[in-house]
């Protein structure tokens, strides 16, 4: 079972071969199952496999790759695996925080917040190089870590007053290639609904 945020934030359960999944209401009270499964952070996602909980997205994807190794998400070369894990860690530490710095801004979004976000995407463009995907010819570990976050980018563009396509065309092209994959397109939430969700969050936090 995959414990996850509501539909608005996405559902990668079908990527795991169709396991059960359960949405958590993170604002109206967290379930006993979530609190028991992740007593440290008390947040989603949590993967329950054979009754054992695993927390944090990157750790879950690592576990999936080791438990269901075909097709592999990580390269066979140890050095390339280390590089993939580096960029996954970079995404974990940088992208979502940069997204939040924009939509949480009161009034006009500071240029520093926009520039930071764009610079992060440019660094990822450098890691992508001339490949179609971070995994090469097919989706790999870094792609799986990165693509769910892109459903927030429409909201970032709306609040920041810029277009990812104009600032980072190579990254935008990568996003489009990912969305051409049925396994991605059918499970990522509608960016406009995410934008509406962000507006709700801003109202909850009293951000004008």
Give descriptors for this structure.
Glutaredoxin; Glutathione S-transferase Yfyf (Class Pi), Chain A, domain 2; globular; four-stranded mixed sheet; 208 residues; alpha+beta; 4 strands; 7% strand
Structural description of this entry:
This protein is of the alpha+beta class and 208 residues long. It has two domains: 2-55, Glutaredoxin, CATH 3.40.30; 78-204, Glutathione S-transferase Yfyf (Class Pi), Chain A, domain 2 (Up-down Bundle). It is 52% helix and 7% strand. It has helices at residues 32-37, 57-67, 78-103, 111-128, 141-146, 153-160, 164-167, 169-179, 182-185, 191-204, and strands at residues 2-4, 21-23, 46-49, 52-55. A four-stranded mixed sheet has the order 2-1-3-4, covered by helices on one side. The protein is globular, with a radius of gyration of 17 Å. The relative contact order is 0.12.
Concise summary:
It contains ten helices and four strands, in the order ββαββααααααααα.
Using only C-alpha atoms, the radius of gyration works out to 17 Å
* Class by alpha and beta content: alpha+beta
CATH fold annotation of the largest domain: Glutathione S-transferase Yfyf (Class Pi), Chain A, domain 2
Shape label = globular
Strand content: 5-15%
Please give the alpha-carbon distance between the first and last residues: 38 Å
**What's the CATH class of the largest domain, please?**
Mainly Alpha
What's the structural domain tally?
2
Largest sheet: 4 strands, mixed
Helix content: 40-55%
- Identify the strand order in the major beta sheet: 2-1-3-4
- Just name the CATH architecture of the largest domain: Up-down Bundle
């Amino acid at each position: 079972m995959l414990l996850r945020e509501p539909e608005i934030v996405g559902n990668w359960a079908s990527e795991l071969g169709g396991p059960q999944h359960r949405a958590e209401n993170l604002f109206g009270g967290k379930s006993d199952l979530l609190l028991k499964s992740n007593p440290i952070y008390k947040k989603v996602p949590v993967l329950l496999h054979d009754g054992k909980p695993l927390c944090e997205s990157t750790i879950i994807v690592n576990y999936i790759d080791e438990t269901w190794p075909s097709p592999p998400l990580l390269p066979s070369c140890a050095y390339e695996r280390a590089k993939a894990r580096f960029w996954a860690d970079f995404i974990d530490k940088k992208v979502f925080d940069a997204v939040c710095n924009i939509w949480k801004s009161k009034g006009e979004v500071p240029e520093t917040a926009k520039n930071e976000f764009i610079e992060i995407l440019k660094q990822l463009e450098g890691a992508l190089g001339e490949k179609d995907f971070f995994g090469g010819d097919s989706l790999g570990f870094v792609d799986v870590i990165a693509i769910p976050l892109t459903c927030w980018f429409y909201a970032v563009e709306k609040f920041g007053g810029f277009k990812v396509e104009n600032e980072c065309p190579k990254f935008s092209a990568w996003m489009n290639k990912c969305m051409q994959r049925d396994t991605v397109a059918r499970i990522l939430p509608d960016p406009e609904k995410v934008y509406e969700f962000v507006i709700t969050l801003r109202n909850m936090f009293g951000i004008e």
